[in-house]
Amino acid sequence: MSTEHEIIVDEIVKLLRGGSAHIGLKAALDGLPADARGEKPDKLPYSIWQLVEHIRIAQWDMLQFSLNANHKSPKWPDDYWVKETAPADDKAWEDSLKQIENDLERFIDLFKKEDIYKKIPHGSGQTILREALQIADHAAYHISEIIVIRRLQGNYK
């Protein structure tokens, strides 16, 4: 029999990885043509590349904050959004996606082993639970924007 704590941890890990009620990033990007990564649809302020990078930067920041008392967050909002609308090349795209995946798994490892309710000592009241919910909520929000852009581009199933 699982404890209530184990049930909460398992459900939040599912939420972090995507699925259930929210599609994950990999599924949202599946089949995306390379030339569509940097396209900015009319009247939208960002491209899919800029959204992917924003997810990467914000998630990295939340992970580092959770791990490191000496971490300095990027300047909001300027350093959370890249100016370039498209990745420099396929390697930049793949590196960004790999960092998102790796950082997420590092956070999940931390989430599974830490007291998720204990306040982060160098924070202002944040807990690992709060950071997990923020990572999941933030990613879900921007993944939905990626899907909208793909629909506007006509390349989403």
What does it look like?
Residues 26-146 form the DinB-like domain. It comes from Mucilaginibacter ximonensis. InterPro entries: DinB-like, DinB/YfiT-like. Pfam families: DinB_2. This is DinB family protein. By secondary structure, this protein is mainly α. It has one domain: dinb family like domain (Four Helix Bundle (Hemerythrin (Met), subunit A), Up-down Bundle). It is 57% helix and 0% strand. It contains five helices and no strands. α1 packs parallel to α5 (128-153).
Keywords:
single chain; 157 residues; mainly alpha; Four Helix Bundle (Hemerythrin (Met), subunit A); 57% helix; 0% strand
Mean pLDDT: 96
> Strand count, sense and closure of the main sheet?
none
Unreliable spans: none
User: What structural class results from the helix and strand content?
Assistant: mainly alpha
Overall, the morphology is globular
> Architecture, CATH level 2?
Up-down Bundle
Helix count, DSSP H or I runs of 4 or more residues: 5
Q: What is the strand tally?
A: 0
Compressed to H and E, one letter per element, the order equals HHHHH
Q: How much helicity do the residues have?
A: 55-70%
CATH-defined topology: Four Helix Bundle (Hemerythrin (Met), subunit A)
Number of domains: 1
Protein name: DinB family protein
Domain DinB-like: 26-146
Organism: Mucilaginibacter ximonensis
Topology:
Layout: H1 4-17, H2 25-29, H3 48-67, H4 90-113, H5 128-153
Helix pairs in contact: 1-4, 1-5, 3-4, 3-5
